[in-house]
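The material for today's practical consists of a large collection of protein records. Getting from the letters to the tokens is the skill we practise here. To make this concrete, we reproduce a full record directly below:
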Amino acid sequence: MRIPWRGIGLFLVSFITGTLYAVVVGLFSGSLRGPLYAWPIWIGLFWLVFWKFKLLRYAGFIWVLPISLVGFEILWSTSHPGIVANKYTTYDRSHYLVVRLKNPQPVDTKPGMHGAGLKDILIGQDGFRADPETGRGNPARCQQVLIGDSMIYGSGLPYANTFGPVLAEMGLSACAFGVTGNSPVDYIQTLKFVAPRIDAGAHVAFYLYAYNDFVSLNKYFSRGFLSFSHWFRKPFEWASYFDQWRQSTFIFQRFRRERTPPRPTLWEFDVDKAAPIQILYPRDPKNYQRPNRLNLRQRAALGFFFDRVAEICRQRDWHVSMIIHPDDAEIYANFASNASRFMDLDPRRADALKICKEYDFSCVDISRFIYERSLAEGKNPYFIDNRHFSIMGTRIVAESFVMLANAEKRTDQGRDQSRTNDGG
């Protein structure tokens, strides 16, 4: 049998050439999808060119550009290592890898600022935040559960001021499963990951942040692909390493870096307390930009999220709550207007609440509670320089969670009493 060496060689050269040019695409592409889509296209294109036009002898010249760029970037990224925020999450974004990190920000940050007092971060054996000093994190078994993004993770807060320890101080043992940068599609993955440790009869609360949790259905399809990482671990590892490397390169950082935000101005709100509430904000908080109502794609995405949660919980005796909380801009617009009672400015929350009530969930909007408790305390529920919950904001949201958990408990007791009476 004659081995087609010419055909094999043609394919190998086409494969190498296509791979090199796909890497170049990755240096300029914002998303990893760009080079992944370009890879087979480049391979097929070069195979056709080499075969049709007999250009195999010129392959070395075609390699000069990509090898020069990639070689330069390998040398540059080696001497200028970059840090990618999401490098410590698992591929499906359900939880973190076990790691201990030092806070890159100065520890002596002004109180009330993002990162003040935060020395280091420990991700425990369960894949979520834990106490850097003792190593203890979430309880092994969960009766009270919070699932969300960086707001539930406690971005910028020392561990002692995050939801788990704060709720423990309030007499409630709870599991806080927060992952920065996540959205409802990722909350589904987190729920599936932690489901085995959630007890029957548990209260499971999802926190939906009005700022960025009302995503379109497209995000579900793109993030849903990551669930295959359990079956194809090695390819996902290689793709992850490539993605981390390309984001640390000179070209990527020059072409894809975030624009410098406008310089913030210090604003103060007099709320009849000892000191005014301060924020660093790029525009006048009175000039609130009212969002549009949820569009069809966002409504479909929210319905898909609720459907998936209902499906997962159907065989389990869990009490599920959907808790909606506001963007900081809406709270600040209320402060700036000296509103004694919360003015509802974001129509998306009402839309989400209406969709939620079509399901067998407890649907709660805590926007008014956050505002009026902040007003009563005379303190900012967010960091002065950042839209994440401050120490006070975390305590306020924790208070609302305790109230909701107690209400669920009373409801359960009422049902049990009713069954006892019916049995008698």
Summary: Residues 5-79 form one domain. The chain has a mean pLDDT of 86. The chain is about 45% helix and 15% strand. Residues 391-423 form the longest helix (33 residues).
